[in-house]
Specification:
Elements lengths: L3 H12 L5 E2 L2 H4 L15 E3 L4 H14 L3 E4 L16 E4 L6 E5 L4 E4 L5 H9 L3 E2 L12 H7 L6 H4 L6 E7 L5 E5 L1 E4 L2 E4 L6 H7 L8 E8 L1 E2 L3 E9 L2 H13 L6 E6 H11 L9 E9 L1 H17 L4 E4 L3 H12 L1 H4 L6 E4 L9 H15 L2 E7 L4 E8 L2 H21 L24 H14 L12
Parallel strand pairs: 2-4, 3-4
Antiparallel strand pairs: 1-2, 5-6, 6-12, 7-13, 8-9, 8-12, 10-11, 14-16, 14-17, 15-16, 15-19, 18-20, 19-20
Helix pairs in contact: 1-3, 8-13, 13-14
The chain binds flavin-adenine dinucleotide.
């Protein structure tokens, strides 16, 4: 007798074009992983082209009681799109239209498969930007940003995805379509909905990691690009000094757009990879970018230099033009590509501590690396306390248990410092076993009840996040 999944796939075959459904085993293996170390073969991949197709797909899946999960570009680092239970993937990559841009009210409405880069390119000529800028922005989708509440380099000053979403359209696991927040469609035109306030529901969906519904349209805020930038690459003899400099900057009330720490291992790997002539002998690089009006920046620069010197900076390279600024950013954005020069595999952590505890956390990470004999490359969106220790390894079978043990100790150290497991990469599969470090059982039950309210039959992206 055919299984539910087989019956479902047959039904899909009758409703949709053949090129919208992938069932070939070899091709499916391309969807068995994301940017995390996990794998799981999907039963099939479906490519919808409209909200209605998403709704039809999900209501059919509910009827056949078949599990599904949404996927954007598959760049998440926590296993959020890995079909561990053999689910059918709903891949939003063909829903890639920018539906509206309203320059006066400063918003855009986009489909979920639009990449961050596509959105930036569509608005930059008019002097606008979409503030979230994860390292993966060239390929990651806005739907994926919403589901992960993605951050990025600029989030010290501009906040994370949640701060830039005005409204969205959601299809529930049962195939019902809702518009939430300020997203409205009046006489066929997108408009700001000021009648009903469902902004809190938008907040609930942002960061829910594809467990509560499939996002099919997103209304994003557009911000005017800053008039001027000061971009500095600062060298330190000690990682902790760089961490202390970050705390000093924050304490002084200066709010840079970005403050990123890169350790020596990663600096050298990047330099080998892109050959930019980075200071290879420095123990820690601190990339700082100030943005705003030129006159304000000069005053901030004076204070900033005092703080850097007070914390032992050994060298400051200031970008003198936009080309040099781009090169500094190229260095930062090349980290992940460069990692392979050290070891072939990595597991990246995303722990976040109060900003004044960044230096202490850096020290803890170093100690844990030594204790477990694990090579750790440290990168940090230090300005918002978000550390990315990259745990590097060569032999999956042999070294993974050691890596996971070191990761667990990093989580424990974070919680002791009043931090949290994830600043921006999500819980996914990876951090699920450690949720009890930060939530009590009753709180986890409450989160499950929220999930059940949206997905009563428990079919959407199960065993992730909660
Ligand atoms: C090199 C590199 C650098 C990175 N840098 C950063 C960084 O600086 N900051 C940061 O925050 N993240 C970063 N990331 C992580 C990742 O790129 C982001 O989380 C990104 O937003 C994921 O987008 P995506 O389109 O790849 O989503 P996917 O990986 O496809 O999906 C992510 C999650 O969202 C769900 N999902 C996807 N689309 C939808 C939808 N339409 N509706 C509902 N749920 C959906 C999925 O089920 C999954 O749980 C980085 C990743 C890499 C590989």
């Amino acid at each position: 007798m055919p299984s539910n999944v087989e019956l479902f796939l047959r039904a899909l075959g009758r409703h949709f074009r053949a090129d919208q459904l992938l069932v070939n085993k070899q091709a499916l293996s391309l969807y068995s992983f994301d940017a995390s170390p996990y794998f799981g073969q999907p039963a099939a991949v479906f490519f919808p082209e409209s909200t209605q197709e998403v709704a039809n797909f999900l209501s059919m899946a509910a009827k056949f009681k078949v599990e599904t999960l949404p996927r954007g570009a598959g760049t998440n680092l926590s296993g959020g799109t890995v079909p561990k239970r053999g689910q059918v993937i709903i891949c939003l990559s063909r829903m890639r239209h920018i539906l509206a841009i309203d320059w006066e009210r400063e918003y855009a409405v986009v489909e979920p498969g639009v990449t961050n880069l596509e959105l930036q390119r569509a608005v930059e000529a008019k002097g606008y930007m979409f503030a979230p800028d994860p390292g993966s922005m060239n390929v990651a989708t806005i739907g994926g940003h919403v589901a992960e509440n993605a951050g990025g380099m600029r989030c010290v000053k501009y906040g994370v995805t949640r701060d830039h979403i005005l409204g969205l359209e959601l299809v529930t696991a049962e195939g019902k379509i809702f518009r939430l927040g300020k997203l409205a469609l009046l006489d066929g035109k997108y408009a700001i909905n000021s009648r009903v306030n469902t902004a809190n529901l938008v907040d609930l969906i942002v960061g829910s990691e594809g467990t509560l519904g499939v996002v099919t349209q997103v209304m994003v805020k557009l911000l005017k690009k800053p008039a001027a930038y000061k971009t500095l690459l600062c060298s330190f003899n000690d990682l902790r000094q760089a961490g202390d400099a970050v705390s000093g900057v924050i304490k002084a009330g200066i709010v840079p757009a970005a403050m990123e720490i890169i350790d020596q291992k990663l600096t050298r790997a990047i330099d080998d990879f892109v050959g930019l002539g980075l200071p290879r002998d420095t123990q820690a690089l601190l990339l700082i970018e100030l943005d705003g009006w030129e006159a304000d920046l000069s005053v901030q620069m004076e204070h900033l230099m005092q703080i850097l010197h007070a914390n032992g900076v050994t060298r400051v390279d200031l970008a003198t033009d936009s080309k040099e600024r781009e090169q500094i950013w190229l260095a930062r954005r090349s980290v992940n590509g460069a990692l392979g020069r050290i070891k072939p595999y990595y597991m990246v952590q995303d722990v976040t501590v109060p900003r004044h505890k960044v230096a202490t956390m850096i020290q803890k990470v170093e100690e844990i690396g030594k204790k477990y004999g694990v090579t750790i490359g440290l990168l940090a969106h230090a300005g918002d306390g978000n550390l990315h220790p990259h745990l590097l390894y060569s032999d999956r079978e042999r070294e993974l248990p050691q890596i996971e043990a070191a990761a667990e100790e990093i989580f424990q150290a974070t919680v002791k410092l009043e931090g949290t497991l994830s600043g921006e990469h999500g819980i996914g599969i990876e951090k699920r076993p450690y949720l009890n470090l930060v939530f009590r059982p009753a709180e986890l039950e409450f989160l499950q009840a929220v999930k059940d309210a949206f997905d009563p039959c428990r079919l959407l992206n199960l065993d992730k996040a909660i």
